[in-house]
Write a structure and sequence with these properties.
With 251 residues, the chain is of the alpha/beta class. The protein folds into 2 domains: 2-152, 3-Layer(aba) Sandwich (Rossmann fold), CATH 3.40.50; 158-250, Orthogonal Bundle (N-(1-d-carboxylethyl)-l-norvaline Dehydrogenase, domain 2), CATH 1.10.1040.20. The chain contains 9 helices and 8 strands. It has helices at residues 10-21, 34-44, 68-74, 132-142, 154-184, 193-202, 215-218, 221-230, 235-250, and strands at residues 2-6, 25-30, 48-49, 61-64, 84-87, 103-109, 125-129, 149-151. The chain has an 8-stranded mixed sheet with strand order 3-2-1-4-5-6-7-8, covered by helices on one side.
Amino acid sequence: MRVVIIGSGNVASVMGRLINKNGHQVIQVISRHIDHAKMLADELHCPYSGSNDEVDKTADVYIVAVSDGALYELNKSFHIGNKLILHTAGSVLKDVLKDISVNYGVIYPLQSLRKEMEYTGDIPLLIDGNSEETITLVEDFARTISDKVVKASDEERLKLHVAAVIVSNFTNHLYALAEEFCEKENVDFKLLAPLIKETAVRVQDHSPASVQTGPAIRNDIFTLDKHLRLLANYPRLKYVYLKLTDSIMKG
C-alpha cells in the first residue's frame, strides 16, 4: 500500500516506521511543523510538505496522526474523494473525517508511543470504519503491521482510552512523585526498579485486584500513620497517598 502520513510527532513516527518495515511505502509526510516533517520524511525516504494543499493524491491510505484539536481543523482544507483516510486518536469520533472522504475510519495504536522507540513490540490496533467494506479494508491493512487487531466502536475506544490514561499516564505520574520524594529524602529511586517491573509483570497473568499488596489492603493503620507523618512536608504527595489509600481500603 502507498501511504501518506499526516503529522510528524510520536505516533506518526512510529506508525511510519512500522508501515515501511512491513512492506508498504510511505510516499509523503505532511506536517505544519516543517522541520519535523523533513526529519521524518528523511528517515522514511520520501518527500514532505508543510501544506495539505500539496497532498499526494496517488496514495491508497492516508493516516492522520495529529492532536485531537488539529483533527477538527483538518476538514476545512483537505478533501480526497473516495480514498481511505484513518485517524489514530483514542477519544475522537471517526465521523470527524466524514467530510474529507467517503471512506474513513480509525486505526488507534493502544500504546504509549515515543519517537525515540526502536522496538515497539506488537502494538494492539483498535480499528473502525464508516461501513463494513471500509472496516474490512482497515482490518486487512492493520493486520499487516500488527498481530493484535480488534474492532472497536467510538464508545469502546473512548473507554479503553480512559483506562489507558489510568494505567499509563497516571502510573507514570506516581513514578515522578516518588522519584521527587526520593531525591529530596536522599534515597535511591532506582532501587525501586525491580519492584516496578515485578508489579507490571504480575498483572499480565492475574487480576490486579487479586494481587494487591501493601498496608492499605491489610488495613495496617500503624504503618499508614508512619507514612503519613513522613509525608507531612509533601502535601501534594500526601494528598495522593490518602486518596489512593482510601480507594484501596474501599476495594
